[in-house]
Each structure stands twice: as C-alpha cells, then as structure tokens.
Amino acid sequence: xxxxxxxxxxxxxxxxxxxxxxxxxxxxxxxxxxxxxxxxxxxxxxxxxxxxxxxxxxxxxxxxxxxxxxxxxxxxxxxxxxxxxxxxxxxxxxxxxxxxxxxxxxxxxxxxxxxxxxxxxxxxxxxxxxxxxxxxxxxxxxxxxxxxxxxxxxxxxxxxxxxxxxxxxxxxxxxxxxxxxx
Length: 182
Ligand code: HQG
Known about the structure:
By secondary structure, this protein is an alpha+beta fold. It has two domains: 4-77, RNA 2'-phosphotransferase, Tpt1/KptA family, N-terminal domain (Arc Repressor Mutant, subunit A); 98-180, ADP-ribosylation fold (Alpha-Beta Barrel), CATH 3.20.170.30. Helices cover 31% and strands 19% of the residues. It contains six helices and ten strands. The protein has a four-stranded antiparallel β-sheet, with no helix packed on it. A hairpin with a 5-residue loop joins strand 2 and strand 3 (74-77). It is elongated. Ligand HQG is lined by residues 63, 65, 80, 102-103, 106, 109-110, 113, 115-116, 118-120, 124, 135, 138-139, 166.
C-alpha cells in the first residue's frame, strides 16, 4: 500500500464487495451503498474521509473498481463481490481467448476441478496475458491459463463484462484451458 488513499480504497473495496458491516452499513440488492452512510461509517472506524476524497478515490482508481449513481448519493463496486448482489452485468460474447492468472500452488486443484469462483460470485478473466500475470502474482508464483472462451460461448456458457472491463463467468471446466509459458 502506497499511501493513505490506497489504504482507504482497500477498505472501501472490502466494505462494498465483502463486508459492509465493517463500516456499519448495508448494501441493497444491486450492491449500492448510501454514500452518506458509507462516509459516516468509515469515520466511525476512525478513518479520515470526506466526499472530496471519496470522489478522488473513485476517479483515480487504476482499475476503476467503483461507480457512483448519477446524483452521487450511492456508490458500489463494479465487480469482485462475494456477497450475492446483482450489479446488472451485461451478458456479452467474449473474445476467442481470455486469460486467468493464478498461483502455481493452486494448479493441481484447478486441473482437477476446473476454475471455480471460490469466495467470489464469478471466475475473473483478463483480456491480456500481462494483466493475468499481475492477478496471479497476488497469490504467489504466477502462472497463466489460456481460456478457450470462444469455444465455451459456442457451447452455451454465458460471459459478462463488468463496467471496468473484467470478464466474468460462473466456472471454467478443465477442457477449456491450458497453461501457457510466461
Ligand atoms: C483460484 C483482483 C484451487 C483462482 C484481480 C484464484 C481480479 C482455485 C483464487 C479479481 C480453483 C481466487 C479476482 C480451484 C480457482 N482450486 N484454486 N478449483 N479455482 N482457484 O482473489 O481471480 O484488485 O478470488 O485461480 O485483479 O485472483 O481486487 O480471484 O487464484 O480481477 O480489484 O482461487 O481481484 O481485482 O482468488 O482475482 P480471487 P482472482 P481487485
């Protein structure tokens, strides 16, 4: 974590994706949190935040993780939830190939079970290898799987593209991926 804004952003992502109670708030069924309540709840935890800082965090987030509603009274995470919320993901035809970065230590289990969402609602896929490597590094020594998303789609599997450009699907069976050299 580089600075105080990064730390605040990390906490906001925890609250909006996984643990709203950590800021004493609730999300609605579409994942929205009331901005006033979020700010008040964060202050209650001892964090220093105001609307200006929140707006800047949303605007400058390098992965564009959050969205406000039109009048900026509500905020939500664009993807990555473990809580069952419906953020209105758009179903979309994927490119022929997508990539998934993970850690070498998970590979044996992934080969056996395929890719599962684990604690999240969806398996997250990247459109390029570089992004996948960075996602994998979060877990350990990275490896990258090349996903035959075009074949999956033609076999009837649904894909969604989040507001911030992350491809999502419910699971990826082992026949649809191979490990590639990175
Ligand atoms: C692995 C970040 C064993 C899976 C990133 C992954 C992403 C299995 C881990 C977003 C498995 C779950 C999501 C199986 C999957 N056996 N391990 N059968 N199936 N796994 O963090 O994809 O910065 O929930 O390979 O950029 O790493 O948070 O998912 O390694 O977009 O915005 O289980 O989170 O974005 O880990 O990352 P995660 P992820 P943010």
